Amino acid sequence: MTTPHIVGFCGNSWRPAKSRALVEAVGAGLRERHGVAVDIMDLVDAGPGIAAFTRDTLGDAARGVVEAIERADGLVIGTPVFQGSYPGLFKHVFDLIEVGALRNRPVLLTAVGGGLRHSLVVEHQLRPLFGFFEACTISTAIYASAAEMTDGEPLPPAIAGRIANAVDQFAAHLAGRRADAA
Ligand SMILES: Cc1cc2nc3c(=O)[nH]c(=O)nc-3n(C[C@H](O)[C@H](O)[C@H](O)COP(=O)(O)O)c2cc1C
Questions:
Q1: How far is CA 18 from each of CA 25, 53, 80, 166, rounded to the nearest angstrom?
Q2: For ligand 1, is residue 129 a contact (CB within 6 Å)?
Q3: Which residue ranges form the domains of the chain, and what is each CATH number?
Q4: Is the CB of 11 under 6 A from ligand 1?
Q5: pTM for the full model?
């Protein structure tokens, strides 16, 4: 059986970014607990060529990111909170994704905001977006405030616990899909 291709995509448009660091923490959890590797990319990788009106006019780097998301067996999604939601360019990436490409794919949701006020962005903004695609969003979503993510410090136990639970759910879903396909 081939190795699953799991893509982490984060809506940060600068680095370092705490939202990307949270996706990296989830990737580390998947690798350590389940031996699953995650190929992480973000809006910085897509570059300014992502701001195209149509797929045909995307820059090469941006097209590479869009196609990697479409080909993925599962996604780890991250975003910084902007104005109570995800950034417009993050949504633009998904406006370019083929409808049907993400159907039944496991999708693990994460977000980082400046505070805790918008912690339900994962439930009220991200989850419906992937519902549109008929993806299988993982029940446990992960939100952190910027203050909870200090460089070089371990994540607070509550967030580390949610990551462990979410990656276990993600891996179980992935294994189930692969067993069905075999
Ligand atoms: C344009 C903009 C809008 C933002 N809006 C919100 C918001 O509505 N709610 C919130 O909690 N944080 C908001 N933030 C804060 C960012 O979510 C937060 O600083 C970021 O996730 C931390 O990651 P960083 O390491 O990339 O700075 C906003 C930041 C910017 C730049």
A1: 10, 29, 8, 19
A2: no
A3: 6-181 (3.40.50.360)
A4: no
A5: 0.98
